[in-house]
Amino acid sequence: MSTMSRSRASLSPAPSERSTLPMGASAEPGSPDFKSLDQPTREQLLNHFFERFKFYTSLCLGTSAILAVFAFLFLIPFVVEPAIQTILAEFVPEAGICTVSEHVHAETLTNCTWASCREGCTTAHTKCHKIRVNLARKPFVEGALVPTEWDETDLKFLINPEGCGYPPRVNCSVFASDYAGPRAPKIFPCYYSLTRPDLVVARYSWESTIRGLILALVLPTTVFVFSLSVLAYWHCRCCDRACNRRVHAESFASKEE
């Protein structure tokens, strides 16, 4: 008896091989009339695709949110803080007239407490160029004569409001040669500060300063808020209930019904 039950169990088709044909009809598994009962429906396939899409999208959004936080922390000392200091310095929009009064190529850390140019804003330098200029607070005109009187003398001259930068945008050797070298012009345009009278810079742009500050604040914040909002909507039950409160309320019968 046990032998017959085992043989019947082995002869019975597997669930994936059962057919939907009428009783008494037969079809081979490879024939076109054979249909499996375990084939997923279109709705099940769409739900499976959405779950996979939701998983990988959540992974990308979580990574983007973390990278946005690190990017914002990285941009604070390199973009946000220098831009705010530049705005507070209130540089004049129209360049004045400057001429070099002193140029020193110093060495050792004690002699490089300040520098007109530094390649790298976070490292200390043992060699530096220190340039001082005389300033005339009048608009610079190409080909004008050297002023006989100066409004300020021996002011610190920096390459930009931060006094530093990174190659190839900032090259201190080229900067020193252009302004204090043997072929440097006698007078050149420069920008002075209204709140810091001892500060004069060679490069300044209000538009680029504001543009860099806005991008550094808006882009990481937008990516972080968007990623966090989507993740909260998908995975936080409280947010899902709050967003679909009307749908949950309509599922219950009203008093009139």
TrEMBL record:
Q: A GO BP term, please?
A: regulation of sodium ion transport
Keyword Kinase among record annotations = no
Keywords attached to this entry? Membrane, Transmembrane, Transmembrane helix
Indicate, by first and last residue, each region the UniProt record lists as having compositional bias (Low complexity): 1-19
Query: What molecular function does GO assign, one term?
Result: sodium channel regulator activity
Top-rank taxon of the source lineage equals Eukaryota
Instruction: List membrane-spanning regions.
Output: 55-80, 213-234
Tell me the protein's name: Protein tipE
What organism is listed for this UniProt entry? Arctia plantaginis (Wood tiger moth)
